[in-house]
Each structure stands twice: as C-alpha cells, then as structure tokens.
Amino acid sequence: GYKKVNWTNENIIPLVGIIKICQILKIDVWNLLEGYEIFSKTQKVGKISIPKSKNNVDLITLLIWLRTEGHLELTSTHIEINQKNNINSLIALKNLFVRVFNLSENSLIFAKGKRGEDRLIISSSPLRQYLSLKYNFPLGYKSGSLIKMDLNDLPLDYYHKILPAFIQTEGCLSRHNTGNRKKYLPRFEFIVKDRALAEDCILVMKKLGFQPSYYENENIFKVGLYNSKEVIRLINESKRYFLDKRKIEHLKEICTDGIGL
User: Fold this and answer.
1) What percent of the chain stands above pLDDT 70?
2) Are the C-beta atoms of 113 and 119 separated by less than 8 Å?
3) Could you tell me which of 142, 228, 223, 232 has the C-alpha nearest to residue 189?
4) Residues 209, 215, 218, 220: is their CA dihedral positive or negative?
C-alpha cells in the first residue's frame, strides 16, 4: 500500500493496484509515487519513502554499491551489502540508506560473515520490492543478469561523486613496474562478471575525460586504466567522495614516493 508522507489518515491502496492502473494509463508509477511511503501489509517496520530518482546522486551511489557488493535474499526480506574489513564504508552506506529512503535505523544492522567479512543487513520488504520492480534487481545470485543504468546527462560533478563507488567495490588500485624497474606506479582495474557493470564504469570514466581499456574473456569483463598520470588524476579528483580511504592509503604505501596522492 501507500500513503502520502504528510497525511494523518490511514487510508491505503494496495501497491499492485496502483501499478496496474498506471500500466493501463501508461503512467510511470514511480514518478507518480515520489514522496509517498511504501510499507508492508502486516507491519510498518522497514517502510520507505519513494525518493526522487532524477539526478539523485546519493541514490545512484547506493544502486552501484547494491549492484556490485549487494544482493536481495531469496527466502527473506533482507538486503545485504558485504565488504571485507571495511566497516567504515558500511556505516556511511547505512546513513545514506536512512537519508535517501527515510528508513528507520532499526531496519539496518551490522554483522560478521562466516569468512570474517563485514555485513550490512537491511530488513525491509518495501525496499526489496522497490529495487526489484523499479530497477529490475534479481533475487539471489545476480551475475550476468543486470542491465545498464541510465547515467547519461548528469551534472559533471555527479560523475566525480559516483566514480568512487566503482573503485571501492569491485575496483582494484594496484601497482606495476616501470621498464627499468626503478619505480612502482599506480594502475586501476574494475573486474566484474556483468557486462552492464563494466559498461556503466566505462561511461562514467569517459564522462570525466578518461580513456579506459576494456577486455572481455568469456564471462569476465575488465575495465583498466594503466597510464599512471591518469590514475593519479582519477584519484585526486574523486578521493574526497570516498566513503573510506583505505585503498588510497594502501596505494600510497606500495607506490614510489606516494606518487603524489
């Protein structure tokens, strides 16, 4: 069901009814419901407010994290994002979820996985439904099933803000030797099993003036930036938007003289 955020009455209409009416009338149901609340049939725990989707950089950031490091559980209302030893990023993501979707903080908890990974667990049937219906998020294992995001025509500074989401998830900041092996210089790679993720990353990088390499081998898709000066520029232009700077600090340690970061 749904209700206007500032309404005081309890009149509700089933969401499926709204969706069906909008299909008949050829109306974008999610544009219609922006600013309204969605909640479950039996309880209001996990209820969300439908955010504005156009040019919402915080929402885009969350979607990238969910598409790379997150998944929707098959057998429960849980949504999870996992990171290895990176609780700071998950804390920042929790705050983003609360702000973007007006979620209750009680709907989000932290846990440790069996392999020691940090887990952000979101218990919200409405959010799970919203992600599945509006953004075609698959349930369970999602590799190979994602479609490209609409990331065209954003303000330039938005691309700087969302690029770290690619770097901090499936991105790798590492080093390589110069020809005479006297220096260690930085490189960036983004390696995924979904073509759509790789193409989204390429689009964002090109919008910022970079010319990344692209490799495809069976079901592995790799985006690379190997010009060290361009990697340094990439990091310096976007590092203030990182949720956690551990990858940058590690790169400074392993590269010659910190390579200007």
Assistant:
1) 90
2) yes
3) 223
4) negative
